[in-house]
Amino acid sequence: MPRPAPAQYLPLYLVTDTALCAPRAVADVVAAAVAAGVTCVQVRDKHAGGRDLVSLVAAVARAAEGRVPVLVDDRVDVYLAARELGARVDGVHVGQSDLPAGAVRRIVGVDAVVGLSAATPGQVAAAHALPAGTVDYLGIGAVHATATKPDHPAPLGVEGFATLAAGADLPCVAIGGITTADAAALRAAGAAGMAVVSAICAAADPAASTRDLAEAWRAPTGRRSR
User: Fold this and answer.
1) Are residues 200 and 213 in contact, defined by beta-carbon separation less than 8 angstroms?
2) Of 113, 115, 131, 142, whose CB is crowded by the most CB atoms within 10 A?
3) What is the Cα–Cα distance from 60 to 197, expressed in whole angstroms?
4) What is the pLDDT of residues 131-169, one digit of tens each?
5) Torsions phi, psi of 114, nearest 5?
6) Which segments are annotated as binding site?
7) DSSP secondary structure of 138-163
């Protein structure tokens, strides 16, 4: 199946956090969020071993029921293993210290989604220097400081995000401490979507939080997203 267009899956992008979801299962939170309007799910668990992470990805894929793309953070091997076991997973998202995006594309093939993190003009430029079709979208952040990824770069703020997005030809999804209060400003700044972790995973009611985020994102602004 050809990979989907970023405009379809970037608007409200959930990145999972097993600890924040607890005591609920990650798959249960994902199921509620997808039903309420999440458009993409990235499975991220830096502490899980390979076998456990494959199981987690498979559980999330079952919960998503093919309604939205399911991506694997960092671990190309886990993506391949989950696919081999029959899970419906759609691609990977890699950071600057992970496998090079060009190598990832060659490994996963033309039908998989490949996302890449970027936090500086140089990293955006390097992504553009790759052959066309290597990367589908950029994840730009951290917009705000966030405890879910302690090693994130210095916060960009919405203005910093806007500067990087303006220099990007690829669709850009904003990440890092994002809440409903950021939606209008990020759309005006050129974001194609917003990626959230704690706003859904730590919410008492993930479905209600998802609906609030989706409504905030859909609210009209003065500038169309990229």
Assistant:
1) yes
2) 115
3) 15
4) 999 999 999 999 998 776 666 668 999 999 999 999 999
5) -125, 115
6) 42-46, 73-74, 98, 117, 146-149, 177, 197-198
7) EEE--SS--TTSTTPPSP-HHHHHHH
| Torsion of the alpha carbons at 200, 204, 209 and 210, rounded to the nearest 10 | 50
Q: Which two tokens stand for residue 24?
A: 């609920």
3-state secondary structure of 117: strand
Please state the residue numbers annotated as binding site for Mg(2+): 74, 98
Mark out the alpha helices in the chain (DSSP H runs): 6-9, 18-21, 26-36, 50-64, 76-84, 101-108, 121-129, 157-166, 183-188, 198-201, 206-218
What's the maximum distance between 2 C-alpha atoms anywhere in the chain?
Answer: 47
- pLDDT tens per residue, range 4-22: 999 999 999 999 999 999 9
Q: Which of 16, 44, 56 is nearest to 198 (CA)?
A: 16
What are the boundaries of each domain within the chain?
6-218
CATH architecture assigned to 6-218: Alpha-Beta Barrel (3.20)
Q: Is 93 exposed, middle or buried (0-12, 13-18, 19+ CB in 10 A)?
A: buried
Residue 223 confidence class, pLDDT cut points 50, 70, 90: very low
pTM over 0.85: yes
Q: 73-80: which pairs have CB atoms within 8 A and are 24 or more residues apart?
A: 73/15, 73/42, 73/43, 73/44, 73/45, 74/44, 74/98, 75/50, 76/104, 76/107, 76/108, 77/50, 78/50, 78/53, 78/54, 79/108, 79/112, 80/107, 80/108
